[in-house]
Structure formats: structure tokens, C-alpha cells
Amino acid sequence: MYPAKLKEGDHIRVIAPSRSMALLKTEQIERAKRVLEHLGFHISISAHAEEIDEFSSASIASRVDDLHEAFSDPDVKGILTVLGGYNSNQLLSHLDYDLIKANPKVFCGFSDITALALSVYQKTGLVTYSGPHFSSFSMQQGLDYTKDYFLKCCRDHDPFDIEASLLWWDAIGKEAQPQPNPGPVVLNEGKAEGTIIGGNLSTLGLLQGTEYFPDLKGAVLFIEDDWESSAAFFDRDLQSLLHLPCFSSVKAVVIGRFQRASGVPIERLKQIIRTKKELSSIPVIANMDFGHTIPFFTFPIGGRCRLEAHQGKVHLRITEH
Fold this sequence. Notes:
Elements: E1 11-15, H1 26-38, E2 42-45, H2 60-72, E3 76-81, H3 97-102, E4 106-109, H4 114-124, E5 128-130, H5 143-154, E6 160-161, E7 167-168, E8 179-180, E9 185-188, E10 190-200, H6 201-205, E11 219-224, H7 231-242, E12 252-256, H8 266-274, E13 284-288, E14 299-301, E15 304-310, E16 313-320
Parallel strand pairs: 1-2, 1-3, 3-4, 4-5, 10-11, 11-12, 12-13
Antiparallel strand pairs: 5-14, 6-16, 7-8, 9-13, 10-15, 15-16
């Protein structure tokens, strides 16, 4: 089930199901609102978005109320999360999935929001979106690329190709230095077409063995992680997925670019992938523009894509979103 596409004049609600909006500076909030309003959207902030506790979050009740209110409000056409964090999976057993299914709309965020996005898709069939937070629209670097792919995926209707950004940044702020983008790296050649499943790898792993874990049958698996995931952690988390009986039906793996602090340069990643016999017969590509480096594209969780990786060249097309 695909939500209605966003259009000019639509109302987007900002919610904080993970970390609180109180962590943002006033100028960040104002800039993000200006950018989104310039795109033609009306922005409102949920009632408890700035509530904050000792975990830099809000109570489960407050976060659930804001999410339910956003989905049930007929004037709201899209929902953006404020930030990622660590605890959005606390909400999963408290959500009214019937309410969400009856009120389908664009739901977008990444990182820790992976738990919510995948759970909503698994429990309701509603396609969700791994893409920018509300706070992402305040960034100074890479905004055009990030913004353009958000619109391609959440506003426009046509299939689109994923093109590599010209530059990338490892951090946000005045001290961040742009780096030339060498583009995607082919680790295993091949062709595949399937349903896009994925997001943040360590967060995806939190759902294993629960009713919220997505069906991997026929999936093209998109995975990424942040600086807290070292090479050893990434290897361990990936291996955990490979041990699942359902992984045998995965069609391809697409890996987002690592931050330098992760200590996973491309040669290290190649070593990790070579140890995985489960991946030897399917295409695997890496260094894609999604995850925790800037800029990043938006992809539909539950949408479809077509992938070709041959002689070092990658063609990735989002066919349904």
C-alpha cells in the first residue's frame, strides 16, 4: 500500500519518536521550516516534540500520542521525524496499527527510525520512507541532493535512477570538508529486482525474532550504520541476518557509505563480504549515498528497485515508490 504523494500546499507534521526536538538549536528549527515551506509545504510541530527526559527523549505515552495524532489528523499528509537516537523500538507494542493502516500517509526518517518504519510496513503493508529527518533540512552541506531525492521519492510519481553525488561530507558544521565521491563500489556482480527492505543495520537487528521483523522474501536489502558500528560490529550484525532462514531468498545487498570513524574503509568491507558465503551468488554493492554521511537519497521501504552491477558500474533504479 502506497501513501498518496505529497503535493504543494500539503501539511507535514513533525514528531519526535526517538530523540527530542529540544536538542536542536532554534536556528536549525527555523532553517528546516524555511526550507520545507519554500518547497511548498505547511509545517506543524507535534504537541510533545520538545518534551525531554534524562534519555534525551520523551515518555512513551507522549511519543505514541503524537504519532497517533499525526496519522489520525485528516489535514496531515506527511510525517517527518525530528532525529534518530536509540529508543523508538519502545513504541512498537503501543502503536495502533489499525489506525495507521486506515490513515496511510508519507512517513519519513532514518537511523533509529528504521524500527518504526519497518514495523509499520510489516504490520500494515504501508510503504514508508528511509530519508531525511526534519532536522536534515537544516544542514548546510549536500542539501540540494538530499532534498531532490526526497521529492523524487515522496512527491513525484515516475521511476528514478540513483546517481552518485559529486561530493560527500562526513559531518555537519563549518569544519566539515567536502570530499570527491568516487561513486558506488561493486563487491559482487549481478542483476536483481525486488522489494526494498532495510535501513540502519543495528536497528534492523533489534527486530529479529519479533512480530515486527520484515519479510525478506524477494528483498533487495539496503543496509547502513553509523560511526558507533565498527568493522567488527558490522560483521557481527550482518552475520546475524545471514543466519536467518529467510535470508536465502534475498536478491541483492546495497550498503550505504560508512563514516570514517567507523573504521570500515572499502578494503576492510571487501574482506568482510568475502567471508560471507551466503552472499557469493548475489550482487552486493557498497559506498552508496544513504545513511549517516551527507548527502543521502530517500528510498521506499516496501517499494521496488532494479539493480545491475557489472564491470565496476552500477545502475540502480527505483521502479515503484
